[in-house]
């Protein structure tokens, strides 16, 4: 006779929200704008690269980390410019809040890039930051403007 223990699994709650599965894009992540959604999908793919990155201490491995950081910084720059332009066009009332969050992301990426240039490859910290950012910015702040986008749509 075999006894199987019963385990109660509680959902992970993060910043007051259930921790989403960030392994793939889901329709509920959509803000209702095709361009911004495609850019968000690309950002999620870049975040996933951090998850799969393995540092073995070789020059190639360290170089790969630098490429990931650069991609995260430069693609986000492109996305932020697009997002801010779209939000300005519709007169979004919280645009300044968006800009502040974008600036904070840029500053954090500069910190990670600076640390990496000085030999500190901190995948875990970067991954934690990106997960937090995805939840707080994409799934909360950006969802705030999705209704404004719908109202402004022709």
Could you explain the architecture of this structure?
- Strand 1 (13-14) and strand 2 form a beta hairpin.
- The chain has helices spanning 34-52, 59-89, 95-117, 123-152, and strands spanning 13-14, 17-18.
- The protein is elongated.
- It has 154 residues and is mainly α.
- It has a two-stranded antiparallel sheet.
- Helix content is 67%, strand content 3%.
- It contains four helices and two strands; from the N terminus they run ββαααα.
The amount of helix comes to 55-70%
- The CA-CA distance between the termini, in Å, is 66 Å
Query: What is the topology, as strand order, of the major beta sheet?
Result: 1-2
Structural class: mainly alpha
CATH topology: Four Helix Bundle (Hemerythrin (Met), subunit A)
| Biggest sheet overview | 2 strands, antiparallel
Number of helices: 4
Strand content: under 5%
What ranges have pLDDT less than 50 throughout 5 or more consecutive residues?
A: 1-19
CATH first level: which class?
Answer: Mainly Alpha
CATH homologous superfamily placement: Hemerythrin-like
**Number of DSSP-assigned strands:** 2
CATH architecture: Up-down Bundle
Shape, per Cα inertia axes: elongated
Please trace the helix and strand order, writing H or E for each element. Answer: EEHHHH
- Summed up, the domain count is 1
Work out the radius of gyration: 18 Å
On the 0 to 100 scale, the average pLDDT is 84
Question: What topology does this entry show?
Answer:
Blueprint: E1 13-14, E2 17-18, H1 34-52, H2 59-89, H3 95-117, H4 123-152
Antiparallel strand pairs: 1-2
Helix pairs in contact: 1-2, 1-4, 2-3, 3-4
């Amino acid at each position: 006779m075999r006894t199987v223990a019963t385990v109660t699994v509680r959902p992970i709650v993060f910043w007051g929200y259930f921790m989403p599965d960030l392994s793939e894009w889901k329709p509920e992540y959509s803000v209702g704008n095709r361009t911004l959604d495609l850019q968000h999908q690309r950002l999620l793919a870049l975040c996933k690269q951090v998850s799969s990155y393995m540092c073995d201490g070789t020059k190639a491995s360290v170089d790969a980390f630098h490429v990931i950081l650069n991609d995260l910084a430069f693609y986000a720059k492109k996305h932020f410019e697009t997002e801010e332009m779209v939000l300005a066009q519709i007169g979004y009332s919280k645009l300044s809040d968006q800009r502040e969050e974008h600036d904070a992301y840029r500053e954090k990426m500069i910190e990670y890039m600076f640390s990496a240039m000085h030999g500190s490859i901190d995948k875990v910290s970067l991954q934690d930051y990106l997960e937090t950012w995805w939840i707080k910015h994409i799934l909360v702040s950006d969802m705030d403007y999705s209704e404004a986008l719908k109202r402004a749509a022709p």
